[in-house]
Amino acid sequence: MKIPIFIEASSLRVLVLGGGSEAEKKTRRFLRHGSRVTVYSVEFTRWLLDEGKAGRIRLIRGDVRDRSTVSSLVDSHDLVIYTIPGLPDEEDSIARQCERRRKLCILSTNAERTMAAMPIEVRAAGMRIAVFSGGKSTLVAELAADEISRCLSGRKDIEILLEAMGHAKDLLKVKMPDHRLRMDLYRAFLEDRKLRELSEHGDMDGAMRRVEEMVEEAVAGRT
């Protein structure tokens, strides 16, 4: 059973096996988030070749059936992405290696067996929202993501609440170190009528001032 999780990608060493369109898509995404990407394949798309020539990714020519070389590459990376269809034995070999060595593994060719998966992502109301179909249909996941984005795109109040609550969290961490005391306050702040009204009226500055007031009141009440 898979669970949704966000991880810091900027420190990841990513190995992409295959050099076609799927490999390019995965490489583009991890490159945008600062990962160090190595692509291992017999052939590469034009974009991958250009990125390799520019030094933004590392390209290694080789056949995935060369298990000794692939094994060495798996050892030196944190995340392995397998994108080559039609080679079930090699897919199985990669999956087993990653399981034994506790490496994160994405099998683009096998949604059921893959250890990890990359959901469709949209941004709305200041948040990143991921939609995962469980491998059933990326197209339907994209449709759902677009619908969620449209639903939230006009909700300025949610974006203001998000920023205000984030501000409150930062202040309380400094002024009230005991996390047990903070938990109840977060809920009370979110339900504050004045904060909600300011958010609904699009008053970001007012919402920020309101949470600052509530933090000061909460701290004073604990001293």
What does this structure look like?
The protein is an alpha/beta fold. The chain has three domains: 13-114, NAD(P)-binding Rossmann-like Domain (Rossmann fold); 119-153; 156-222, no CATH class. It has helices spanning 21-32, 46-53, 67-75, 88-101, 138-153, 156-175, 179-190, 193-200, 204-222, and strands at 13-17, 36-41, 58-61, 79-82, 104-107, 120-124, 127-131. Strands 3-2-1-4-5 form a five-stranded parallel sheet, with helices on both faces. Strands 6-7 form a two-stranded antiparallel sheet. β4 (79-82), α4 (88-101) and β5 (104-107) form a beta-alpha-beta unit. α3 (67-75) packs parallel to α4 and α6 packs antiparallel against α7. The two termini are 46 Å apart. The model has no long low-confidence stretch (mean pLDDT 94). Its EC number is 1.3.1.76. Keywords: NAD, Oxidoreductase, Porphyrin biosynthesis. This is precorrin-2 dehydrogenase.
* Total number of domains: 3
**Biggest sheet character:** 5 strands, parallel
Sheet with the most strands: spatial strand order:
3-2-1-4-5
User: Element order, helices and strands?
Assistant: EHEHEHEHEEEHHHHH
What's the alpha carbon Rg, rounded to whole Å? 23 Å
- Rounded mean pLDDT is 94
Number of helices: 9
Tell me the CATH architecture of the largest domain: 3-Layer(aba) Sandwich
Give the CATH superfamily of the largest domain: NAD(P)-binding Rossmann-like Domain
Strand content: 5-15%
What is the name of the CATH class of the largest domain? Alpha Beta
Q: Choose one word for the global shape.
A: elongated
Distance between the termini: 46 Å
The tally of beta strands, per DSSP, is: 7
Structural class, please?
A: alpha/beta
Helical percent range?
40-55%
